Predict the structure.
Amino acid sequence: MDDIDRMLIGLLQEDATQSYAALGAAVGLSSGAAHERVRKLRERGVIRRTTVDVDPVAVGRGVLAYVMVDGTTWMGDTRQALSAIPEIEEAHVIAGPASLLIKVRAATTQDLQAVLRRLFDINGVTRTQTIVALETFFERPVHIPTGP
Amino acid sequence: MDDIDRMLIGLLQEDATQSYAALGAAVGLSSGAAHERVRKLRERGVIRRTTVDVDPVAVGRGVLAYVMVDGTTWMGDTRQALSAIPEIEEAHVIAGPASLLIKVRAATTQDLQAVLRRLFDINGVTRTQTIVALETFFERPVHIPTGP
DNA sequence: CGTGAAATTAAGCCCCT
DNA sequence: AGGGGCTTAATTTCACG
């Protein structure tokens, strides 16, 4: 994992449709060498997958909220219970004023309310605090640090 | 934007490297028709870009935190000031117990501390509350609702 | 559907150890 | 000597009009 690998990752984050020839030219390598490096980055799991970035509003998920969830003991299947709610995009165990933090994208505020109700159906959940996003300044990929 | 479009988006989210022939086969269309639909989805901005999903730990961003930022009046350049901090992955204006919510990925807790210091250098910032993620259950793309 | 570009694999070279 | 990484080149697949 050297600087060239990091550059390749950065370039792919910006546009994963470009050819290996273009990638190679950008980092001073041949098409074949660039291809091989990217293949290894995928193999090692540094690059998890190639995907598309979708506009949430265009697919009917215009309401963004973060919900802090308080609870007692989590059952082993808490993760699955959260995962089963499609509006939940992220779920983290946190240190701080609650037990879990989840990111929710809902169609409407009514849909958000439905998600909150489903949360209370999960065993152990006692309270939720919801933070609604009014405006998103930016959402961007993980920044790749440059240097040794 | 019909169910086939939504299916195509879902398939591309899972794996954007597959061929249009494979995409077409999965939704019951010819390669050319699938290609044309995806082209239009890109054109309309439903698909914003094709990118790679990177393991944060592998690129030296193993510490995840959310920071709620309190402040007085935001200067017009608050967005730029936040954007200039590479560790910040998201920034939202929120309704709730603070003014802004930002998502931070740092190399170490010391790096996180450095980010917090930089936040206080932004004009108007009066207080921060940091929530550190101990474990991430999942982080996944926007779910595409099926049906009309 | 054909044409041309790009992915992918293979073969050989160089450098560094 | 050996191995990793590069270039070049050949083959096949796919994008795209």
Q: What stands out?
A: The domain at 3-43 of chain A is CATH 1.10.10 (Arc Repressor Mutant, subunit A). Strands of chain A lie at 47-54, 63-71, 88-95, 100-106, 125-139.
